[in-house]
Amino acid sequence: xxxxxxxxxxxxxxxxxxxxxxxxxxxxxxxxxxxxxxxxxxxxxxxxxxxxxxxxxxxxxxxxxxxxxxxxxx
Length: 74
What we know:
mainly alpha
């Protein structure tokens, strides 16, 4: 699984958008996008989801148990 920062950066580049233009299209501040792409941990989930919605994705909290079960199935 890719880190969020790498995923967003790659997708933005595939879309051939600068950070400034992408932030504008996603409706977030440039500083928010930069924090996400730098892998900062203190980013608001709502803002992260605004960015991810540009790619048809969202992040949602999951129980640790759910992750363990899914990993055991693989």
